[in-house]
Amino acid sequence: MRPFAYTRVSDTGAALAAGRRGGRYIAGGTTLVDLMRETVEQPDELVDISSLELREVATTAGGALRIGALVTMAEAAAHLEVRTNFPVISQALELSASAQLRNMATIGGNIMQRTRCTYFRDVSAACNKRRPGTGCAALDGHNRSHAILGGSDSCVATHASDVAVAFAALEATVEVLGPDGQRSVPFAEFLLRPGDTPEREHALRPGELITAVEIPAHPRPLRSGYLKVRDRQSYEFALTSAAVALHVQGGVIRAAKVAAGGVGTVPWKLSAVEVRLVGQRPSESLWAEAAEAAADGARSLQHNGFKVDLLKRTVQRQLRIVGGNK
C-alpha cells in the first residue's frame, strides 16, 4: 500500500474543502481499503467522513423515504420504516454481504463500490476502467460473471451492489452536496454505463459528497421483494438478481417497478417488463410473458450466455413471489 495522508473531518464544510483539493472520502472503507492494498487505488489523501451527521432514516413531509449516506447497511436493513414500506431494500441489503461487512459498510459507500471484475483487480491485466486505453482482458478472457447488458467494446464489468438494484427499481434519487451547493441526481443517471470512458463510473462532480438516497413515495399497497441467484448461498455476488415492486388494486396491476442485477454494467431498469405488467391481472402466464422482455438487447460473451435465460427465469420467479401465482 502506498503512503497517503489521512484527514478526519467533523462537518461538511471541512469535508468539501478536503474534497476540493482531491481527497478521497472514506467511511466504512470496506471496498476502498481492499483496493488500496491491491494497489488498484492509490489516493494521496483519505478524508474520513464517518463523524458527519448523515445517519438518519426518515420519511419526508411528501412521503418519501430518506436514507442518510452514512447509515450502515445493517441499520438500514433493520429500520422499521424500511422493512415495512420497502422490504425490497431490506432484502437486498441482507443478501449483500456478511454480517460483519453490513455493520461497517454505508449506504453511500455501497452504491459507490467499484466492480468485482477480476481483471480490474489484477494490476497486471489490461483494464480500461483501471488504466484507460490498455484494453479489456475480459472480452476474450474468462467472462462468466460479466455483463450481458450495457457493455461496450471498452468494458463489460458488472456493478456489484445489490441495494443499487432496489434503488434503480424504485426510481430513487441521490442527494449530493458540493462546491456548487446541493443537487439531486436521478438514480438512473447516477451510475454511468462504460461506453468509451469506463473510468467514469458515476455522475459526481469533483469534490461532491453523497448526503442521502431518497426513495419517492409510491402508491399503497406496495408489494416488493428482492431475489438473488448466485453460485452459493453464503457471501457471494449475484449471477442474476431481480428487484420487483408491484401496486395491485382491484385485482389489476396499477404500477410496476422492476430492475435486474448481476447482468448489467449498471443496475438495469427493466422498463419493457414494467410496460407489459401495468394494466394486467396477475397470473402465471403474465409473469412468463413479461419476463421474456427482461433480456431485451442482451449481448452475451463466450462464457456467460447462460445469463440470458437465467435472467428471464429470475424475473419470472420474483414476479410470482411478489405478485402471487394466480
Automatic annotation (TrEMBL):
Lineage top rank: taxon: Bacteria
Keyword Oxidoreductase set for record: yes
Transmembrane segments: none
Sequence ranges assigned to domain FAD-binding PCMH-type in this UniProt record: 1-220
SMART domains in the cross-refs: CO_deh_flav_C
SUPFAM superfamilies attached to this UniProt entry: CO dehydrogenase flavoprotein C-terminal domain-like (SSF55447), FAD-binding/transporter-associated domain-like (SSF56176)
This protein's UniProt keywords: Oxidoreductase
Pfam hit, one: FAD_binding_5
InterPro entries: CO_DH_flav_C, CO_DH_flav_C_dom_sf, Diverse_Substr_Oxidored, FAD-bd_PCMH, FAD-bd_PCMH-like_sf, FAD-bd_PCMH_sub1, FAD-bd_PCMH_sub2, Mopterin_DH_FAD-bd
Full protein name: Xanthine dehydrogenase family protein subunit M
Species lineage: Bacteria, Bacillati, Actinomycetota, Actinomycetes, Pseudonocardiales
